[in-house]
Design goal:
The protein is mainly alpha-helical. It contains 8 helices and no strands.
Amino acid sequence: MSQHATFDDANLILRLYEIRREERLREARRWFARNFGPATLAEYRAICTPGTDEDEYVRMVISYYEMVASFITKGVLSTDLYFATGGELGLVYSRLEPVLAELRAATGHPGMYKNLEIVARQYGEYLDAQAPGNWEGFKKRTRGMILAK
């Protein structure tokens, strides 16, 4: 996982941070962190009704982090530097993970969000290297942050 970070890595992380600050994406991230946490595909579909703001928010947030993860899996961005600068990708994956297999089966797309999954698992290894069980604790905490309905 370890690779030497470069100034280009740092500049890319700063650019990704700028994109995260875009108002619509910030709104989507806020909604996602507070509300998205389906346990089943039926719950996912209820949350992500086509044409709703909620569907747009989920697609914006997950596709943003799939893009970021693709930079890591393709070797464009230092994994270590990225992990050292934040954990929101882990939160996004922790919320999607319970329905990912069902979502892939339902869409017939077995590679859906594969970059996100790969990098999230690497992030889990990064957390567990700091303290065993840290990744499972992280997922439990982030899934518990959803506002009561």
